[in-house]
Amino acid sequence: GTWKDLTDSVNTAFRNLTGQVRNIAQVTTAVANGDLSQKVTVDVSGEMLKLKNTVNTMVDQLSSFADQVTRMARDVGTEGRLGGQARVDGVSGTWKELTDSVNLMANNLTMQVRNISQVTTAVARGDLSQKIGVDARGEILELKNTINTMVDQLSAFADQVTRVARDVGTEGRLGGQAQVPGVAGVWRDLTESVNGMAGNLTGQVRNIAQVATAVARGDLSQKITVDARGEILELKNTLNTMVDQLSSFAQEVTRVAREVGTEGILGGQAEVQGVSGTWKDLTQSVNFMANNLTIQVRNIAEVTTAVAKGDLSKKITVDAKGEILELVTTVNTMVDQLSSFAEQVTRVAREVGTEGILGG
Q: Are residues 98 and 72 in contact, defined by beta-carbon separation less than 8 angstroms?
C-alpha cells in the first residue's frame, strides 16, 4: 500500500542522488587529478542541474585556461614565439588573476627578450650606442647588467682602438696605447695585441727615422737594430744595405779624392760593390773624373818632363775642357814658343859661329 510506495520513492530518490553525487564526485576527482576530459553527464534537475552546469562550466574554463597556458608555454619556451597572450573567456576571481598573471609574465618576458635581442643585434652590426633599458629583476636583471657592461666595455675598446689607429695611421703620432679598464679574456687579449702592435710599430718607425735622419745629416755610422718581421724587416734590410752602400761609396770617394787631391796618387778608382741606379752612376762619374784627370795630368807631366829634358817635339794631345784645356793650350803654346826660340838661337849660333855670317 502507501508504505510500499513511500519506500519505493525514498529508494528511487536515494538511487538518483547516489548516481548524481557519484558522477559529480568522479568529475571533480578527475579535475583534482588534472584530468579535464570528463564532464558531468547524469540526468538531473533543479539545484542538482545548476550544480552540474556549474561543474561542467568550471571544467570548460579550466580546460580553456590549461590549453591557453600550455599554448603560451609552448610558444614562448619551445618555439620561441613571443608576444602571445592567454585568452580565457568568462573566467573571474582566481582564474582571471591567474590568466592576468600569465599574460603579464609573457608580456614582461616579451619586452625583456626583445630589448635584449635589439641591443645584441645592434652590437653584432657594430652599433654600440644602444643599451638595455627595460625593467627587469632577478636573473634577467643580471643578464641586463651583464650585456650593458659588455656594451660599455666594447664601446670603450672600440674608442681606444680607433684612437690608437687614428693617432698612428692617420696623424702619425706614435707611442699611444689603448686604455680599456675592466676588460678580461679575449677583450684583454685584443687590447694587449693592439698595444703590442702599436708599441712595436713605434719602436720600428722611430729607429728607422733615427737612422734616416742620421743619413740625411751625413752620419753613416748608425744602423737599424730593432726587431722586425715581414715587410718591415724588408724595409730594415733595405735601409741597412743602403747605409752600407753609402758608407762604402763615401769611403771610396774620400779615398780617391785624398789620393788624387792631397797625395797626388793618380790612377785610383772607387770600388763600391752592389750599388745600382744613381749610386752606380755617381761611382762611375767619380771614376771617370779620376781617370780623365789621371790621363790629363800624366800627359801634361810627360810633355813638361820632355821640355825639361830639352825634348820639344812632344805636345799635349789629351782631350780636355775648361781650365784644363786652358792649361793644355798654355803648355802647347809654351812648347811652340820654346821650339821657335831654340830654332832661332840655333840658326844664329850656326850662322855666326860656323858660317861666319854676322848681323843675323
A: no
